Structures are given as structure tokens and as C-alpha cells.
């Protein structure tokens, strides 16, 4: 996975990584995906 960059911030992971509408309240899914993506990044 490549690094995500938004404005001047590196390593951004948010709801935009979800490819489809998940339903009423996708906050737990977005949180889990963000944690997974950041866990794949090497430590600085």
C-alpha cells in the first residue's frame, strides 16, 4: 500500500478508503480499517 497524503499530512486513513456505502453507522468499520492500514506502515 502506498502512503496516503491529504493536504500536508502524511499517512491519512479515513472513511474514503471504504469503496461502498456500509449502512447507517460505519464508524466501527472505518476505525478498524484505519487501524489495519496504519499497522501496515513501518514505525518511524
Structure description:
With 44 residues, the chain is α+β, with helices and mostly antiparallel strands. It has one domain (5-40). 32% of the residues lie in helices and 9% in strands. The chain has one helix and two strands; from the N terminus they run ββα. It has one helix spanning 27-40; strands at residues 5-6, 9-10. It has a two-stranded antiparallel ribbon with strand order 1-2. It starts with a strand and ends with a helix. The mean pLDDT is 78.
> Would you identify the regions where 5 or more consecutive residues have pLDDT less than 50?
none
How many distinct helices?
Answer: 1
How does the helix and strand content classify structurally? alpha+beta
Strand proportion: 5-15%
Query: Radius of gyration, rounded?
Result: 11 Å
Report the sheet with the most strands, covering strand number, pairing sense and barrel closure: 2 strands, antiparallel
User: What's the total count of β strands?
Assistant: 2
Please report the distance between the alpha carbons of the first and last residues.
16 Å
Structural domains: how many: 1
Give the neighbour order of strands across the main sheet: 1-2
Shape: globular
Helix content: 25-40%
Features:
alpha+beta; 32% helix; single chain; 1 helix; 44 residues; two-stranded antiparallel sheet; globular
Brief synopsis:
The protein is of the alpha+beta class and 44 residues long. Helix content is 32%, strand content 9%.
Amino acid at each position: 500500500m502506498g502512503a496516503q497524503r491529504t493536504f500536508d499530512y502524511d499517512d491519512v486513513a479515513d472513511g474514503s478508503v471504504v469503496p461502498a456505502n456500509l449502512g447507517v453507522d460505519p464508524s466501527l468499520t472505518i476505525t478498524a480499517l484505519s487501524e489495519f492500514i496504519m499497522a501496515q506502515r513501518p514505525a518511524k
